[in-house]
Structure formats: C-alpha cells, structure tokens
C-alpha cells in the first residue's frame, strides 16, 4: 500500500480538483480528505455516509448561572478574555475564545464552573463511486485539527489494509500549519500543486522546506501553467535546482469549474479532453513509480 498526499502552499491552486481527477483514475484506492478545517472533496465525490464518529476537539468552560455568585474571580483570571458579562449581568463563556485550561473551574469559590468536552465535530466513513472515503467536519475556530487529521489518516490506512487497496490518496490542506504537518508525517510521497505566481512559488517554497524536514519524497505539478509562461519557467528552474521531479503541467481551463458544477471530476466530465489525457499520464507516472 502506498500513501500519496496532495498538498499546496496556498489555497486556490486547484489541489482538490486535481485530487478528484486522480481519484477518478485510481483503482483499488481509499480516499481521505485531510483538509478538515475546510473540507470540500465531498462536493465532487458525493459520499454516502456509512459511519459517523464524534471527535473530541477540546474542552469548554460552562458557568452555571443558578450557582454563580457573580464574584468576578473567573473573569479577572481568564488570560484569554473568554469570559464576559452578559445582558443579565452575569459572567458567560465565549466558546470561540475559551481554551479549556480549567483555571476558572479551579478558582471558582462556589464550584459554579464545569468543563465540558467539545463533541461538536465529527468524522465519517463513506462510500463513493470511486471507493471508500474517510472525511470529517469541524466547526469554525475548533481545536486539535491536526489530531483529527492523524485519526482519519489512520482509519483510511486501516481500511486500505482490510480491503487490500493499493493506494491511499489524501487531499491535504493548503499551507504549513498543524494539519499540513499531520498530513506529511509518515506518508510515502507528497504531490505538490503549484500555480505560477509570485505568491504561489513563495508559499510552495515554504512547504517544500517543511516536507524536506520529514524526508518524504516530493513531486510537483504546475497547474494553470499558461497564465504566466515566463513565471512558469521560473518555477521549473526552481524545481530543477531543488531536484523535485515535475510530473506534469496543466493549463488553465474553465472546464474544471464546469465539471465541479456537475459534481464530477474533469476526467469524468470530459474523458477524452487533452487535459484529462494529461492527468491520466500524470497518474500513470505516480502510480507506477515512473518518476
């Protein structure tokens, strides 16, 4: 079994569109959406959820208004300014600022504060037309997204072993944050999607540095290469100088958007189009180690 994680240094490079296209070409694979903070692979793969599991993303304080004496101790002590005075004149916790540190619970002289586990987030095991998919849903500002990525990756690999799947294909998050780190560790290869812009190359360089620190094999695709031919050449020189194999270049096309509106990958939507044929060649290189 080979695990391939598709990443980008920034959002908007077309990473998920390319992941969906490769998913439609892969046979005997399990898919995992590692972009748990802003998951969107499901929009194309249309998963049929078979299992739903809660995810404990952290703790939140709750102040019982019936027991609170309004002494102000908790509000004064909270370094995150997560406790405010509500319209009734009593302290209340802002769930988006509370870090669940339990200090307020320990300091409350009457025991009016309790810490509750936050189980608002979920992860799923689903069937898709291409195979099994593991994915998740997190609310805005929720914690421990990196731990959630690790958890769903482990589940995807477990299911791949059970099903004797040849590949696990991860749609990773953009950037170099915790979810990206959790997507890189232990994977067999990273496929980097770069757009030929100054910001695209700048952010790709940061991601390359991160991937190299984990000593994971790295390959690249230049997407929308024809929007700036001169800068595409700059990206190619960078890849050559850093010994990163370039497995393919994909031109800009409104067909990507059109296919998504029809809830299909581009390869499904226009299978004989030159871009689809190009993507088939890219997948053949990756899947057969011709790189």
TrEMBL record:
It comes from the Bacteria. Pfam families: CbiA, Fer4. GO terms for molecular function: iron-sulfur cluster binding; metal ion binding. This is (4Fe-4S)-binding protein. Residues 59-88, 89-118 form the 4Fe-4S ferredoxin-type domain. The keyword Hydrolase does not apply. Keywords: Iron, Iron-sulfur, Metal-binding. InterPro entries: 4Fe4S_Fe-S-bd (IPR017896), 4Fe4S_Fe_S_CS (IPR017900), CobQ/CobB/MinD/ParA_Nub-bd_dom (IPR002586), P-loop_NTPase (IPR027417). Signal peptide: none annotated. CDD domains: SIMIBI_bact_arch.
